[in-house]
Structures are given as C-alpha cells and as structure tokens.
Amino acid sequence: MNYNKKLKLIINHAKIYGFIFKSSEIYNGIKSIYDYGPQGIEMKNNIKKFWWNYMVKYRNNIVGIDSSILMNNKVWKASGHIKNFNELFIINNIDNKIYIIDQLINNIIDNKLIKIKNKNKIKLIFNYYLINKNINKLNLFLKKIIKKYNLSKLFKWENINNINLMFKTKLNSFDNDQEKYTYLRPETAQGIFVNIKNVKLSNRLKFPFGIAQIGKSFRNEIISKQFIFRTREFEQMEMQYFFYPGQEKKWYKYWIKSRLKWFYYLINKKKKYKLKIHNKLSHYCKFAIDIEFKILNKFKELEGIHFRKNYDLKNHNNLSKKKLYFYDNKAKKNYIPYVIETSLGLDRLFYSILTNSLKIENINNKKRIYLKLPKFISPIKIAIFPIIKNNKIIKISKNIFNSLKYKFTTIYDENKSIGKRYKIQDSFGTPYCITIDFLTLNNKTVSIRFRDNMKQIRCKIKNLIKYFKKKFDISLFFKKNI
Ligand code: ATP
Hints:
By secondary structure, this protein is of the alpha+beta class. About 40% of the residues lie in helices and about 25% in strands. It has a seven-stranded mixed beta sheet with strand order 3-9-10-16-13-12-11. It has a five-stranded mixed beta sheet with strand order 20-19-21-22-23, sandwiched between helices. A three-stranded antiparallel beta sheet has the order 5-4-6.
C-alpha cells in the first residue's frame, strides 16, 4: 500500500473508532490542530503513565511539576525564543508553494535526479549560514546553487522570509507594572528552568537530579501536512536532568541508553529506530541527538536528547537577577548546573504507535483490520459480552464487569452480533474479550478471546482477576531497567 493510501486509512480509522478528530470539524476544522476522542484520550493517558512511571515515579532523584502555559514574557526573552525561535522559508513563484529552507536544501541536495558535486561541502556551507542566521548570504548561495544546477524552472523567489513561531497573546492588564503581552509556551522546558530553586528547596534535592513534566506546547508551524506529526498545538513529555559541569558525557550516554530501552519496550522493533546526530543545533543547544522512528516509510524525529549546557539557567540568572547558581561543597565554589534534556512529542509517539499497530489481514477472502497495540497502551483492556440477551447471562456478565472495572479499563456491550462486537473491539485495539455463554451457567467458566490470533480459551470466573493482573503487569520492565 502506498504512503498516501496508508495515511488516509490511518486518519480514517482514527476518526471512525474515536481516536482522533479534526478540531472544530463542523466548521471545516482548523489547520494542523486535532482533538482526541474517547479511545484517543485513554490511549494517550496510558502512554503518559508509562512515561511518568519510568521517568519520575520509580526514580528517587526525578520529580514532576505542572507549570503554567502562560509565563512572564521575560522568560522568552531570556530563553532566546523571541530572538531565535524562527523559521526561514521562501514562497516559490513557480508553484506558489511554501518551502522551509532546511527542507528545500535537503530536497535539492538529496535529490537523486540532481547530480551535485561536493554535497557535504555544500551542506556545511548552508548549515554555517543557517546557524549564524546570515540570511543574505544564504539567499545568494541558494540562488547560485539553483542557477548552477539548472533548477530555475522549478524555483524562483525574491527574499527569504524569517518568521517567529511563537503565538503572541495579549493580557488584559491595566496596571502599568504588569506585562501587556506574552506567548503560549513553545516548549515545556522553560517552566522547569524557572522553577529549579523552588523545586530543589521544597524537595531537598541534591545534584544530580531531574525535573519532568508533561504538558501542551504551541508552535505556529508554517507547513504541517502530516496528520498529528507536526501540529500547532501538541503535548510534550520533557525531563531536564541537572548536574555538576563536566559530567555531560556520562549523563548524555546514560539518557540515550535509558530512553532507547523505554522505546524498545513500547514498540519492540529495533530496526524501526534510528539515532541521528544533529548538525544544525537549536540556539540553546551544545550537542544533540534525535531518536527517529520509521513512520509509514520515512524515519522521523520522535524525541530529542539535548545537552543545553547551562544556557537557560545562566540567562535566567542574568535577566531575573535571582541567584540560580548553587554552592558545591567539594569544589568550594558556586556554579550553574549543566543540563541534559529528553524531549518527546506525545502526539508524534501516538501517531507512530498507530501506524505501527494497524494491521490488515486477509482471512478466508475477508479483510480483517485490527490494531495490534501494546496491551498496556490499549484504550480498553477487556470487553465483556453476554452472548445473547438472556437475563441470567446478562446478570453474570454485569457482575463480572463490576468486579473487573476497578482494576482494568473494561467495557460492557450487549448490542449486535458477537462477531460484530469482536470486530469493533479489534478496531479499538482491545486485547481481550470475555464472552459469557450457556456453558458459563453450568461450569462458571467464560471464554477469553485474544485480539491478535482470535483464539479462545476458557477460564474460571474466580480466576479472572489473577489472570489479567498477570497479563497487564509490566513491573518487571521497570525493575530491570531503572
Ligand atoms: P522538528 O525539527 O520536527 O520541528 P524540533 O527539533 O524543533 O522538531 P524540539 O524543539 O526538539 O523539536 O521538540 C522536542 C519534541 O517535541 C520533538 O522531538 C517532537 O517530538 C515534538 N514536537 C516539536 N514540534 C512539534 C510539532 N509542531 N508537533 C508535534 N510535535 C512536535
């Protein structure tokens, strides 16, 4: 199946089965913004819990916070986002399309139809101009390349545009001392940096320690075609790990290894992951690596692991004039801690899991579509079906539902044929369906049907809780890997 067809299938499946809807769909939506439906929110919460347990709950030197989306605009001045969080792009006069400069350069250089000599050297020159924000020279160099390789029939533009990606918003403030405007945060990290003192003191933390949070971020992206891969409103799961300067290699290695273990447990296909070292670094970053995942047919960034040195704390220290340095007893001096950040886009991960899990099989000339989600991520864990609407069977079914629902996300469904109910649960990615039938009335057993191979077994009602506890228990992973 080709890329567009598969993407369409996924978007359709996500809508029909209540995972993801277009935001404000009845008004034709709003570009690059999405809502999560009943299955979507359950699955999202399960992913968050898996991340939170691994990164925060089961470690004794990482704590969580939930900082505000709107902050004093000086935060964004100090962080460099007002000055540097920009996207460069051109509007191509030939096809009237917008091209982000990074992507345009990569498209030209990596295009197999264009025979370019000294590709690496050209890339280096582009990166140099990009990092130094030398837009005039970049424009001239790009135009020279276009001319040299006869691409003028494809690309023509006047200037390179430079636009800030933050959403600016006005505050209704009539007090002269107050800020009049601020921004929707483009990353959750700054909420962590500005709170470091509060968190350290309130929890008596000693370096090295981490602060984590999950929350919404906003970027006014220019091009955002790929469903929930690149959106204007998205959720990040970020952790900042602070330590004494000089330990950066140790913690950088540690976090790459640690994060990979987490990803491999979630989607156990090592070949689908790739590590990519960054050439073009963000304004705050000293070195960085991306964990990429093959979504449909292309490797794409899921998580960035960045060494931010003490760029952010130093700038906040300087601008706020509040002491964001700490005393080291061994070295007998003050220092501003360094930081390694792990920054994962929840929506991108959600998308990766969906694309990786959607299975289409042909069984007896009939198409079977199901979501082979990791069991502990599935929105619904167990579905309970009385085989027919018989009073005795319904009563037992509801009793079983009531006994399981406090331990596992369980649903009860007595409508439509049993085949149709299985089909719906397969599409939700529900790993187990319990059916209560006439045999149940005789021997107090039920059938458990497995999503992946559609096989069934019988299980005594009294053993159900024990059986499913074992099936959904992932504590061994945490014990082995933290
Ligand atoms: P990209 O190069 O794809 O724009 P980035 O390198 O700017 O991403 P970071 O600033 O490192 O991204 O943000 C950390 C993570 O947040 C990314 O790895 C990604 O998973 C997620 N993310 C960033 N921008 C978006 C977006 N517009 N939509 C969804 N997720 C995003």
